């Protein structure tokens, strides 16, 4: 028989497994540092530390009109970004559907379609640029081996794309050839990862930034690194002092030497598309937080301490409990006995738990589970930020006029999840002290794949 446990014992056991105390945070941060150094010196590391070949960040005074192309989300997006040199811009954009046939057919068909979409965009919207040739920044959100700001070879496809003749090819060349075949006067000048784009976009808007972090479907970060520390880059030129590095920190500690992975994380990981990969991301990002919480809730149900042991079809379904529901539950301030609290509404109306199975204690328990899972995510996120502050030598105040380090963040989790930033800051204080934490100036970095790519094209022209 199942040994009976009380609700309190069961919840406490969960809380213990998910708690990251200060010594643990510190050991994670130390491990982060090790893996930063390893990734900067070695190709093919678990945390890849990919050089972007972008050798500076905007100051907000940049001017000009640039195109941006974004492939990798649900749609293909074409934008024209006009930078006005004052941290602000105007943007025109259009989305184009990419059919399954194009996603899986010959790669030239896909790139011809992209060139045609750019042509259609220019026909429909015209352009405000007076240049002979328009410069374009290309956000291509798939794994590429980048070897110059305008050169990168596709490693493999993800997200339902699978043109068989594309891996190994330079995607900038593919796009340029397609544009040239159609005599479209556009030059693809830069290939920009979306996290790098977020850093450029925030640096432009905030008049300087050193770090970017994405907490959306997945998690990733980029920062401006001293070129001498990027040891694997053999081509470092004397005139270059810094380069933006795309960390791919979702792959932090895939060897699991430091992360306190619970059985709930293991279950989420085992049933995911790529098991034993990106465990850090699976403990933090929007795609997985709801799923971790769902596994915890089911465990409590199976111990018969929640909802009288009853579940629902949706709660039993993988990815059936969205991270957005956790946000709604964590924002709920109503009394647990209320018959109309947002938590009860999510459980009954959205999740299909029977009203008569939900007690006021159950409401409290569900809130506690969301708090526990959400708090761990925010504190793990702080490890990445703190490690990057240490890595860039930015923990100490520079004096009375210190204006800190600007960090651009993007993604639904940082934007909408209640208390995420405040919890992250709590852990930052434990890791880099109050002085260090105060130096972290967080701003929302909007539209890295549009404005960021345009700024990448501008930066490419400067670097010539
Ligand atoms: P992307 O990272 O794909 O550009 P988003 O930043 O919007 O897009 O992240 C989408 C992820 O955020 C999804 O996994 C979704 O479950 C989660 N999400 C959506 N809304 C919220 C919310 N209000 N609170 C927390 N997470 C959310």
Architecture overview:
With 464 residues, the chain is an alpha/beta fold. It folds into 2 domains: 1-54 and 206-446, Hexokinase, domain 1 (3-Layer(aba) Sandwich); 63-191, ATPase, nucleotide binding domain (Nucleotidyltransferase, domain 5), CATH 3.30.420. It is built from 15 helices and 13 strands. The chain has helices at residues 7-18, 22-41, 100-104, 107-125, 171-181, 194-206, 263-270, 279-282, 286-302, 323-330, 342-350, 360-391, 412-416, 420-439, 448-463, and strands at 50-51, 63-71, 76-84, 89-96, 134-140, 144-148, 151-154, 186-191, 211-215, 219-226, 242-246, 405-410, 440-444. A 6-stranded mixed β-sheet has the order 1-11-10-9-12-13, with helices on both faces. The chain has a 5-stranded mixed β-sheet with strand order 4-3-2-5-8. Helix 9 (286-302) packs across helix 10 (323-330) and helix 12 (360-391) packs parallel to helix 14. It is globular. The relative contact order is 0.17. Adenosine-5'-diphosphate is lined by residues 216-217, 286-287, 322-324, 327, 411-413, 416-417. Keywords: ATP-binding, Glycolysis, Kinase, Nucleotide-binding, Transferase. GO terms for molecular function: ATP binding; D-glucose binding; fructokinase activity; glucokinase activity. Pfam families: Hexokinase_1 (PF00349), Hexokinase_2 (PF03727).
């Amino acid at each position: 028989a199942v040994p009976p446990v009380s609700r309190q014992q069961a919840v406490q056991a969960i809380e213990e497994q998910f708690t990251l105390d200060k010594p643990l945070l510190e050991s994670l941060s130390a491990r982060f540092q090790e893996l930063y150094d390893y990734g900067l010196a070695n190709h093919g590391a678990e945390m890849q530390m990919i050089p972007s070949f972008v050798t500076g960040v905007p100051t907000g005074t940049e001017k000009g009109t640039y195109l941006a192309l974004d492939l990798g989300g649900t749609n293909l997006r074409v934008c024209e970004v006009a930078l006005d040199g004052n941290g602000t811009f105007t943007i025109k954009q259009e989305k184009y559907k990419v059919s399954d046939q194009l996603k899986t057919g010959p790669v030239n068909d896909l790139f011809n379609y992209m060139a045609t979409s750019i042509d259609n965009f220019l026909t429909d919207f015209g352009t405000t640029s007076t240049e002979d040739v328009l410069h374009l920044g290309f956000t291509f959100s798939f794994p590429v081996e980048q070897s110059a700001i305008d050169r990168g070879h596709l490693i493999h496809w993800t997200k339902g794309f699978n043109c068989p003749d594309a891996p190994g090819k330079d995607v900038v060349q593919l796009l340029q050839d397609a544009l040239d075949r159609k005599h479209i006067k556009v030059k693809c000048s830069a290939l920009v990862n979306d996290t790098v784009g977020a850093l450029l976009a925030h640096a432009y808007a905030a008049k300087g930034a050193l770090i970017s972090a994405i907490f959306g479907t997945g998690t990733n970060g980029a920062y401006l690194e001293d070129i001498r520390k990027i040891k694997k880059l053999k081509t470092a030129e004397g005139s270059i002092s810094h380069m933006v590095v795309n960390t791919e920190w979702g792959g932090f500690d895939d060897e699991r030497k430091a992360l306190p992975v619970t059985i709930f994380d293991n279950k989420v990981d085992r049933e995911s598309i790529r098991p034993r990969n990106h465990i850090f991301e699976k403990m933090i990002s929007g795609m997985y937080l709801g799923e971790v919480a769902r596994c915890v809730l089911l465990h409590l149900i199976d111990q018969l301490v929640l909802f009288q042991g009853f579940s629902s079809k949706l709660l039993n379904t993988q990815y059936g409990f969205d991270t957005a529901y956790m946000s709604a539950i964590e924002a709920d301030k109503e009394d647990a006995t209320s018959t109309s609290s947002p938590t009860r509404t999510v459980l009954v109306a959205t999740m299909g738990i029977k009203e008569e199975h939900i007690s006021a204690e159950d409401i409290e328990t569900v809130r506690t589970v969301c708090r526990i899972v959400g708090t761990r995510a925010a504190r793990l996120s702080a490890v990445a930020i703190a490690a990057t502050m240490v890595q860039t030598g930015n923990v100490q105040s520079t004096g009375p006029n210190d204006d800190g380090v600007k960090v651009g963040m993007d993604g639904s989790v940082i934007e909408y999840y209640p208390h995420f930033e405040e919890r992250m800051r709590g852990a930052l204080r434990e890791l880099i002290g109050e002085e260090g934490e105060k130096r972290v100036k967080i701003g929302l970095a909007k539209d890295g794949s549009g404005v960021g790519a345009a700024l990448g094209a501008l930066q490419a022209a400067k670097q010539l």
